[in-house]
Design goal:
The protein is of the alpha/beta class. The protein is built from 20 helices and 13 strands. GO terms for molecular function: GDP-Man:Man(3)GlcNAc(2)-PP-Dol alpha-1,2-mannosyltransferase activity.
Length: about 500
């Protein structure tokens, strides 16, 4: 009897869900007509929705978003781009102007529409001081629910890294989904770090020092990895921004866990398989599409007579590890104090998205004082594009300390501008960008403050001819490998057009 009641309850729940979904789709069609009317276009357009809650942040991920949309506007005039954004404090025109100022990308307002998401705080670090991965992923699903309740596109593309939104888009919209993956939400590196009890950005000292807490976190990561893999498999196509990211995404796509498969079979989520099961074969691998780097103006900068400036360009986010940059620079001037008289300085340029980032900048200023290097350090927050270019045209060294940086557009910009890169020996900078060209180096890698400091010293004492050759070699490689044209070709080869044309 209880089993029969359970079957009836499940059937009733599915019928109610189906009715709810149909109502959302009906309302969405009505709103689409309103959007078309607002844009002054007919109702026979196709709609691509881009899920990017921080579209106004001005970082490398945003350059990917806007370059893709600008390319679509030029080549696919019958496609309307909708950006699901949490930047409710900015207008459409203000965002378009910032894109022009920051990236020199021109967007047409005629085929661009924004859906404003009011619950963006649900994907912010500060909202989830514990179980951050799980909290942000669930928060992204709420945001996707909000997005689909506003307008359902014909194709949903996540360009920020929120794979759990795929379930919502498929459930409510019945549409194909795809993604440009900058960085996997979880990776085998993260699991290895917890297993080895190594402290880091994703593994605090309190957990790494405790065997019990480490085992608990490993279980948490195991469960999260399982459902993250389930999410990625819902995609119709996947792009990755580097070989490092592709390697991790591919391994996650092939990930399996027999025990969790069994548990999942008898969980409440099993009922949703009727709605969420993709009608296509899940992707077996991601396609590498290197991010766009508009290097045209940077490639015109003079390579000679550079100032003794170590330059960092990175958003003031925790994973960028600006403290490591300050430590490396302090080590350098302590080991080689003679450079102080030559006017050496560290310049940190970066975007500050919110109050948490602003507080982080204040903390970095205090840390520079603690290290007694504040007079040699300059912070340039939310710099306009022309100011960033000025620093790129005069600096000698480009510094990046992020561990497992997924790609590193800033490093490509260093190289195109003739700024010699010194990066962490991991991720995209190690495997894709700062690699030998014609059998000779294009920059340096390091893992410790001493190694960074030694590379700074090596660069500053190079002969003019040796220095010029290195700068020219780095520029040549960057310009030919990471152009806007290469990105647009890869984006169009990803298959997004096919899935747009096959959507209902």
């Amino acid at each position: 009897m209880l089993a029969l009641l359970a079957v009836f309850a499940a059937a009733a729940s599915l019928l109610l869900l189906r009715r709810y979904v149909l109502n959302i789709r009906t309302r969405s069609n009505q709103r689409r007509e309103s959007v078309f009317k607002e844009l002054g276009t007919s109702g026979d357009k196709r709609v691509v929705g881009f899920f990017h809650p921080y579209c106004n942040a001005g970082g490398g991920g945003e350059r990917v978003l806007w370059t893709a949309i600008a390319s679509m506007q030029r080549t696919e005039p019958d496609v309307i781009s909708i950006v699901y954004s949490g930047d409710v404090d900015a207008s459409k025109q203000e965002i378009i102007q910032k894109v022009k100022s920051r990236f020199d990308i021109v967007l047409s307002p005629d085929t661009l529409h924004f859906v404003w998401l009011r619950k963006r705080h649900l994907v912010e670090d500060a909202t989830w001081p514990r179980f951050t991965l799980l909290g942000q992923s669930l928060g992204s699903m709420v945001l996707a629910w909000e997005a689909m309740n506003a307008i359902i596109p014909d194709l949903f593309i996540d360009t920020m890294g929120y794979a759990f939104t795929f379930h919502v888009a498929i459930l409510l919209g019945g549409i194909p989904v795809g993604a440009y993956v900058h960085y996997p939400t979880i990776s085998t590196n993260m699991l290895a770090r917890v297993k080895s009890r190594k402290a880091g950005h994703t593994n605090s000292d309190a957990i790494s020092s405790s065997s019990l807490l480490s085992q608990g976190k490993l279980l948490y990561y195991r469960i999260f990895m399982y459902y993250y893999a389930q999410s990625l498999r819902r995609a119709s196509f996947l792009m990755a921004n580097s070989s490092w990211t592709k390697g991790h995404v591919d391994s996650i796509l092939q990930h399996n866990d027999t025990l969790l498969d069994f548990v999942h079979l008898f969980s409440p989520f099993a009922l949703l398989r009727l709605y969420l099961q993709p009608s296509h074969q899940p992707p077996r691998e991601a396609k590498i599409v290197y991010p766009p780097c508009d290097t045209r103006e940077m490639a015109t900068f003079a390579l000679e007579a550079r100032e003794p400036v170590v330059l960092s360009i990175a958003q003031f986010r925790p994973e960028k590890d600006h403290k490591a940059q300050l430590r490396a620079f302090e080590t350098f001037v302590r080991k080689h104090p003679e450079y102080k008289a030559r006017g050496v300085k560290l310049v940190l340029i970066g975007g500050s998205r919110n109050a948490e980032d602003a507080a982080r900048v204040d903390g970095l200023r205090d840390f520079a004082k603690e290290l007694k290097i504040e007079e040699y350090v300059e912070f340039v927050v939310n710099a306009p594009y022309p100011e960033m270019l000025r620093w790129l045209s005069r600096s000698s060294i480009g510094l990046s300390t992020m561990v497992d940086e997924h790609f590193g557009i800033n490093i490509v910009e260093f190289m195109a501008a003739g700024v010699i890169p010194v990066t962490h020996a991991s991720g995209g900078p190690l495997n894709d960008i700062v690699v030998p060209f014609n059998g000779k180096p294009t920059g340096f890698h390091a893992t410790s403050p001493d190694e960074y400091a030694d590379h700074f010293h090596t660069i500053f004492r190079m002969s003019p001819d040796e220095e010029l050759e290195l700068r020219l070699r780095a520029r040549t490689w960057a310009v030919q490998r990471f152009s806007n044209e290469e990105f647009e070709k890869g984006w169009n080869d990803s298959g997004w057009k096919k899935w747009l044309n096959t959507s209902a």
